[in-house]
Every structure is written in structure tokens, then in C-alpha cells.
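Q: What does the predicted 3D structure of Urea ABC transporter permease subunit UrtB look like?
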Amino acid sequence: MDIGSLLNALILGVSIASIWLIAALGLTIIYGAAGVINMAHGEFIMLGAYSSYMLQYYFGLPYLLCIPASFVIVAAVGLVLERGLIQYLYNRPLDTLLATYGVSLVLMQGVRLIFGSDPKYLAAPALFSSNISLGFASVSTFRVVILLVTALCVLGIWLLFYKTRFGVQVRAVMQNKEMAASFGINSSRIYMMTFALGAGLAGVAGSLFGVLAIVLPTMGASYVVQAFLMVVTGGGSLAGTVVASGVTGQLQSVFAFFSNDTFARFLIFVLIVVFLRFRPQGLFAQAGARR
């Protein structure tokens, strides 16, 4: 066995895990905090990619500035969606699922009408097109950038939810909305802000994915399934999503090393189905039931 190739596969597994994780972060926040199954999450990712494309090619904004700008733009879209539609559908999971699916179709067709169906491309700085040599293995510089951005997002979310007053309010609303209201916490405002935050993180993911692949109106569908798998497998918590993404990313890379990428994905999906059959609550179940 070629040790260098195996090490390269393990490093690639970390890269795959970071991609899956950043795609799932926003969904984790929206589902964990508000209990909303957001079927439009993939289209939020797509909007992030198109936002970066628009800013880069029409306004000449450098790519590194397009990433935070995409967060702001998609977060604003999420805020409008939550205020205009989602806030009326809380505690109605089937209605929310159908409504967000309809929104995903509207967003997809709207982008197709504005930008067309032809593929678009994001240009990353030339510095990110090189490879970093790590002894026996090498890794793309841009994949390292994705890993660093993902780590910063996870750290920022952890600090926000566990080291700030806002985080305490979010966790209080998650546990018991009525009790939180008795302490003066505005649950409607909390839901609005968490939905916008989750949408903004999807925009960041789209800005990154637009460099790895072509930008298309349908690109979100290829990421949303993976994002849902990570959230469900992790149990709907931030820690669970991080662990689920890390484990599945490494397993997919190792399986692909011994077979091929298609068969590796098949094995991953089978393992997830079997795991959820015996532990439907996921890796880290929520501490208490939502009220």
C-alpha cells in the first residue's frame, strides 16, 4: 500500500468534511433553534454563489471581500423570508416544509430568469490555485482556505451561542418558549435572527463552493442532501454536526481510496441509514424536548 496516497486520502477526507460541515452549519442553526426544516437551504447556498459572481464581475469586488458580502446579502434574504412567511408557520412542520420547498423553486427560477441557465465561474486569487506539499501528500491551497473558514465559522457560532447573552436567549427559547417569554425574551426576534444567521452561513458556503464547481441555478440541490444528512446524523446540534461531518468525510475518502467515489458515497448513505435505524435521535440528541 502506498503510504503517501493513503495520507493524501486522509487529508482529502478532512477537506471533504469541511465542505459538508460548512454546507450544514446554517441548516443546523435554523433547525436546532427554530425547528424549521428549511428545504430552501440549497437555494440559499446557490444565492451565495451568485451574489459573489455578481459582486466580482459587475462591481469588481475582490473575491475575499465577496465572502462576507455574500453572508450579508443572503442573510437579508433569509430575514425577509422569515418575516414574510416562516414566522406564520412555526410549530407546523409539514406546512413549513412545503412552503420552503415552494420558496426554493421560486428562487431557482428567479435566478434562472435574471442570470440565465448557462454556467458561471468564480475566480479565486492566484495564490489559492497552488498546492501545499505536506511530505508524502499535497493539498490544494483553496481547500485549506475552506477548512480555515469553516473552523472560524464554527468557532464564531460556538462563541455566539455559549458566550453571549444572545446565545443564552436562543437556548432558552429552544427549551421552553413560554418560560423564556416570561423572562422578557422576545422569541419572535430570536427566530428572526437565527434564521437570518443560518441563511447567511449558507451564503458563505455558496461563495466557497462557487470556486470549486460551476455556478448554476440548480447547484444547491447537490449540497442540501449532504447538509440534511449531517444535521440528522448529528442529532440537530452543533457538536453533532461537526462530528458527523468529520467522520463521514474521512470514511468517504477512505472508501474512495480503496474503490471509487460513487461506491464510497453509496456506502456512506447505507451506513447512515443503518445508523439512524438503531439511533434515530442522532449522535448527540438535544437535551430536552422543544416546547
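A (community wiki): The C-alpha cells above were generated from the sequence. The chain has a mean pLDDT of 87. Residues 23-223 form one domain.
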